[in-house]
Amino acid sequence: MNLELSEEQDAVRQLAEDFVAREITPHVVEWDRAESVDKAIVEKLGALGFLGLTIPEEYGGSGGDHLAYCLVTEELGRGDSSVRGIVSVSLGLVAKTIASWGSEEQKRQWLPKLTSGEAVGCFGLTEPGTGSDAGNLVTKAVRDGDDYVINGSKMFITNGTWADVVLLFARTGDTPGHRGVSAFLVPADAPGLTRRTIHGKLGLRGQATAELVLEDVRVPASTLMGPEGKGFSVAMSALAKGRMSVAAGCVGIAQAALDAAVRYAGEREQFGRSIASYQLVQELISDISVDVDAARMLTWRVADLVDRGQDFATAASTAKLFASEAAVRAANNALQVFGGYGYIDEYPVGKLVRDARVMTLYEGTSQIQKLIIGRALTGVSAF
Predict the structure, then answer these.
(1) Measured between alpha carbons, how far is 203 from 35 in angstroms, rounded to an integer?
(2) Contact 88, 72 (CB under 8 A)
(3) Buried (b) or exposed (e) across 228-250, using 16+ Cβ within 10 A?
(4) Residues 263 and 349 in one domain
(5) 0.90 cut: is pTM over it?
(6) What does DSSP assign to residue 58?
(7) 277 and 164 in a common domain
(8) What pLDDT digit, counting tens, does each position of 279-337 carry?
(9) For residue 186, what are the domain limits?
(10) Active-site residue 363, yes or no?
(11) Do 174 and 74 have their domain in common?
(12) Catalytic residue among 35, 127, 211, 363
């Protein structure tokens, strides 16, 4: 693996850095307090091609490789994880999955809109009673002539109230467990689908997170994506790549923590000198730096495996596990450098702590990642 970025990759990273400085950083505190980012950010992301990375140009995408995608995701995570989540879900979980599993008609219908920012996608897997145990979801889709009728509910759905299309997973057969699950592309304006914004979150406060309720939602059979009964495979393939995106966003959080800690330590004086001169402060900063470098390299390894067409699922779990836990450590260490000022939201590190914490929970908890890694190493399933 060549660790030197190509000119194109470096240009994409610089474009993302400039975008964050111009369109995100000035508004982070405001959006966090209001519990909503400005929805206009979606079209801006689309205009720069960030919502079309790795998607073929024939479907409106901007092409590029997965390392470029990780570079952009890292920069967005460094700026505001709530904005990073928009891209990770609408592009990473929805558009990429349509590109891999969708029919030609489905690709033509949705990909140009998703990649341009005209439309937003959400990933409807988690339910009130099934988080880690996604294979036992209970939302039901019953065939009725040329249609399916869907009933059920979904919880903690990123982009849920903004979405124009829901990549929805529902049980289509009587077979228990994951073998009875199918995937559907459900228009968000379908009659019977209601959405409720979830307020009061600890972190990712600017992100539109929702509960979805489906009551006799009727959709044509053409909305089925992939073979009936193969929806769990669709979901797991999406989440494997999604974990790479989350890991990259966690690198961004850790990098933001490092930048903030170094800057503040150089400005803050105690006992007549800069706190950067104290060895215990240097230890905190060095610990953050090591976590940043290690998490970044693990994430880049996943991108390299994906781009070379090699198996990447275990590497993605490894990167997601390490990077998410590293982001929590980095944010906590940065808060320690700031002392009491870090507890005030006018300073950046408090938000980093809050945003980092959920990274160990969603798209597979740290415990689930350990099970995946352990199963890969031993060949023995825990399920």
Answers:
(1) 10
(2) no
(3) bbbbbbbbbbbbbbbbbbbbbbb
(4) yes
(5) yes
(6) G
(7) no
(8) 999 999 999 999 999 999 999 999 999 999 999 999 999 999 999 999 999 999 999 99
(9) 123-227
(10) yes
(11) no
(12) 363
